């Protein structure tokens, strides 16, 4: 019946919503307890991700088929993960229904709900076409995000962002050298930004070049900030808030002497493992970047902690676990980190600030506030040539603003970028 992966998906959705923490962290925590095969773990992850990606659709489909909404959140989440399989995954309907019933029956508090679950999910299966025909653009976006994005981007562009979030994000990779050659070898598309976009989905570890450390997975937008720093050999560069390490790898591959800083020892260990596979070197430091005490650097890359609303295509739980209060708190942290970075930079040094957020408080307004607080810095405008000619991603001020709906390849289904903001500053000599 495949109960293991479905149990894990159900538990992960429940815990993510209850604790308001990233789904990836919850899966990492719960997966060892289930002792699943890699294939079953992948199924569990797929079920949980699509449940969050289409949570609005699932919620409406279920509520319209319930006489009374259950008070038990765990029951609702079990119904949602079952309905997600029926509507959006290539699994037999009977497997989704029967496994949900059996999961309830083995649970002390939900054992009585087997018949109810069976009836609701079988009705969802019968009425699949009707449910999928009702696909308003904003159905899978929380109202608070809809209101923010319409205010910031306008109705038309904001709607395109919401629609893009319903699609799975592409897999992009960065290479140490010979991007064109590796694009051909991997059967991928060489994007104008220099990243390679994979066409076929397959296990990353099975691809040519993984074991020898020729490349690493990194969204094309996430690869822009380090490129825009234009690291030079032997320059001393700090990568603040560095984990999981994609940007550190870019800087190290350019020949810079990199200090990778992150407050999480666990995340920093993963960064070190990635660098070891890539045969790249960087000094690592597990410390809060606000407390970093170092001699001034030639350049600094600050990928600040943020709401991560620009990554909803690949982390759809973000839309349902974050709030405007999170944005307010994180924007304060970003301001402090920018001020710290300014103090750590040599005269004439370069600072690139970025966040994977769609929110102005974490992007455009941070850049504006930084320049107002630090007259010793000037903005160094970014040009279209530096980002592969993607002039639609440039703001009037010369910063970068990528959106999930921005096309980066002729094939529509392989278009889109993570939502990123990038600004570049230079300190007076």
- The whole-number mean of residue pLDDT values reads 95
Q: Provide the succession of SSEs.
A: HHHHHHHHHHEHEEEHEHEHEEHHEHEEE
Give the count of helical stretches: 17
Estimated helix fraction: 40-55%
Counted beta strands: 12
Task: Give the uncertain stretches in residue-range form.
Answer: none
State the separation between the terminal residues, measured CA to CA.
67 Å
Q: Structural class, from secondary structure content?
A: alpha/beta
Proportion of residues in β-strands: 5-15%
Radius of gyration: 23 Å
Descriptive account of the structure:
With 429 residues, the chain is α/β, with parallel strands linked by helices. It has 17 helices and twelve strands. It has helices at 3-19, 23-34, 38-53, 55-63, 73-88, 93-105, 114-126, 128-133, 143-153, 155-164, 179-186, 224-229, 246-253, 265-278, 318-321, 324-343, 364-373, and strands at residues 172-175, 189-190, 196-197, 215-217, 236-240, 257-262, 283-286, 297-303, 345-355, 377-379, 400-402, 420-427. The strands form two sheets. Strands 5, 6, 7, 8, 9, 10, 11 and 12 form an eight-stranded mixed beta sheet that branches. β6, α14 (265-278) and β7 (283-286) form a beta-alpha-beta unit. α5 runs antiparallel to α6 (93-105). The protein is globular, with a radius of gyration of 23 Å. The model has no long low-confidence stretch (mean pLDDT 95).
